[in-house]
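Hey L., structure's done. Input below.
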Amino acid sequence: MNNDKSLATLAGGCFWCIEGAFSQVKGIYSATSGYMGGNTENPTYDDICTGESGHAEVVQLAFDKAIISYQEILEIFFTLHDPTQLNRQGNDVGTQYRSAIFYHDELQQGIAVEIIKEMTEGNMFEHDIVTQVCAVETFYSGEEYHQDYITNNPENPYCQAIVSPKLAKFRQTFVNKLK
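Output:
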């Protein structure tokens, strides 16, 4: 690793898909599933599933900005989920599945706001984008069994029905960005 290592923290529904995709991208050192944006210290998966902790399922990326830019990360992010669904992604419903970008500095905040503005002005989606742009908060790593979930649990029915098809489409779309 070099001095160009940076962090990005993204919430786009179930973290298994976001983590599974970004772990395949050149310039991403790590993709860690976890929780952010709530009011409970050291939340567990059970805590966030109630919706009462206020946390979102997030993936925190450590990346080399000399290889992949923050803007490119956001461009990929917006293809991996539907940023027009409020507090849900498909059948996953609740505030823990909200779309959010947790920025780590003013530059990231500006890039996030600008890309959402450009997509809105370009009518990229049929409905309004509801992705929140929020300052980074305490990141709580998810339980070990959530890390690299799709690789470790390919037989899981949710992974077979939802995650695997999304990742296949992702790999076709971003073939030049893959490790």
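DSSP finds six helices and eight strands in the chain. The chain has one domain: 5-177.

-- N.
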